[in-house]
Amino acid sequence: MKLLALGLLGALAIAASASARGEHSASCAPNFAGRLETATATQLVTVVARTRSSTQGAFRLWTKSGGCWRQAAGPWTAWLGGNGTSPAKREGDRRTPSGIFGFVRTMYGIAPSPGVHYAYRRVVCGDWWVEDPASPSYNRFRHVRCGSTPPFRTTSEDLSRSPTAYRHFAVIAYNMSPVVPGRGSGIFLHVSTGRPTLGCVSLPLPRLVAALRWLRPSAHPRIAIGTAADLTQ
């Protein structure tokens, strides 16, 4: 009888807790972030384009507390790919992939770390993000001797040759697990050059630094990119 009573009390406690969570969730103010599948994230970046062909999107930061998403910053205007966004991105199509992704746990930059909470690697001559679908290093960081010919096909210069765009950047974990050859590579959140990107997301330097400093690995942050329809379907 004693064991039965203890079991009943435990069940009631669990039910009460679940009920409290449900009531709390029901009290959340409705917003766009609350409509997205964000797993365990307590930080969220949304970059919402008006149409799939739009080259700019509304960039917002969100924090989850008590089961509710609340806007932390934005909206800011971000640049997207020159051909807009796509849920079926391909290498070289100049589209930013649409979907919800994480961030790679190392940030990069030609300049010193601006005070981020992630591991940070300074970019130097010979640093590449591999864009060759035939390479076993596709969509991975690779360093080769400065000035040498890389053992993979290149379509651009090494990262160190883009001092404005790559002053600081975070790597969006697109096409990472697993890496699918040809599905796209090197999708970054980087500094704006004042025009559409090759498939990344970019912000003016002060906005980018604010966003990078805000992100915390322990919050399992996600970034949602695309039209509202593509992100909520």
Please supply descriptive tags for the structure shown above.
2 domains, alpha/beta, disordered N terminus, 17% helix, 233 residues, 5-stranded mixed β-sheet
What does the model show?
The protein contains three helices and 14 strands. The chain has helices at 2-26, 205-214, 228-232, and strands at 43-49, 56-65, 68-79, 85-86, 96-97, 99-101, 106-109, 119-122, 127-129, 141-143, 169-171, 188-191, 201-203, 222-227. With 233 residues, it is an alpha/beta fold. A hairpin with a 2-residue loop joins strand 2 (56-65) and strand 3. It folds into two domains: 1-30; 32-232, no CATH class. The strands form five sheets. The chain has a five-stranded mixed beta sheet with strand order 3-2-1-14-6. The longest helix has 25 residues, at 2-26. Mean pLDDT is 91; it is low at 1-24.
